[in-house]
Amino acid sequence: MKSALITGITGQDGAYLAEYLLKNKYRVFGMYRRTSTPNFWRLSALGVLDKITLIPADLTDEGSIINAINESDPDEVYHLAAQSFVEASYDEPVATGDITGLSVTRLLDALRLLKPNVRFYQASSSEMYGNAISPIQNEKTGFHPASPYAAAKVYGYWITRIYRDSFKMYTCNGILFNHESPLRGLEFVTRKVTNAVAMIKTGVAKSVRLGNLNSARDWGYAPEYVKSMWLMLQQSKPDDYVIATGENHTVRDLVEIAFSVVGLNWEDHVIVDKRLFRPLDVLSLKGDPTKARKSLGWYPQTTFRDLVSLMVKADLKRWKDWLEGKFFPWDVPASLRMKKGKYHWRIY
Description:
With about 350 residues, this protein is α/β, with parallel strands linked by helices. It has helices at about 10-25, 40-45, 60-70, 85-90, 95-115, 150-165, 190-200, 220-230, 250-260, 290-295, 305-325; strands at about 5, 25-30, 55, 75-80, 120-125, 170-175, 180, 210, 215, 220, 240-245, 250, 270, 335-340, 340-345. It folds into 2 domains: about 5-180 and about 220-245, Rossmann fold; about 190-215 and about 250-285 and about 305-345, UDP-galactose 4-epimerase, domain 1 (Alpha-Beta Complex), CATH 3.90.25.
């Protein structure tokens, strides 16, 4: 039986990847950052929390990384952990560089010394392309990072290739374009929109504030994307792959579809707030997944419209269940407060 170590196992991708690997008969270990309020709701929602082994660790502490490797003795390592919110990287650029960038070196060097034959996956990002000259991006497109987060990811990408070339380690970069699901964090625009739609439909809120509605992204379905991570580590030789749908849509498209799912006109509820615009915005990203399709046999199956619809319906069900007093794993209640008998959510 193979063993896998997942960093960032409490996030969207980590939870779905844990579920996928368990179905494939892996022993799954997950590194997580110990906090006063543990964030295990995604693992609980998927029913896998009691099927994995959690290891507390800190990506800035090489000693705890070594301990996690020794305890898990992995055949495969999936490095998903990062400070992954672009906007937050402007507020914490140094921390983002350390956690999102330098942590890759710490992990790779520990593996080089302890488990040099391990297969390693690095979660790279489409944000590395920034405002690329090419209208569609593939594995040969140059990087033009437009945020501290993207710059840190570029560092992680290149150090992964350097360890592959210098030490003959099996290391892969998965350049994943945006991928969403009902487990997406509330700080990301897709889930911010779908959760807001559910709140408005159930009468908990009246409006939502958004930034640039013209920004366009290539959005796919996260459970499909984690399969590509696994496929990369099953090949005879390590390589780097773009994972995307080959289509992009604007935030306005997202909003229109999301509100239409519940029969509402988005223009009655959306407030454009220029304070939410990024200092340097990436206007459009669209990936070319040709290489992944040919080499890995991977291709997206869920359309953008279906993705938005399933996310809205999931958030709507959560709000209805919560208002009926039901208990279930969920991230929103921690952000709620009472005011004059009404529920308010702190982001809106």
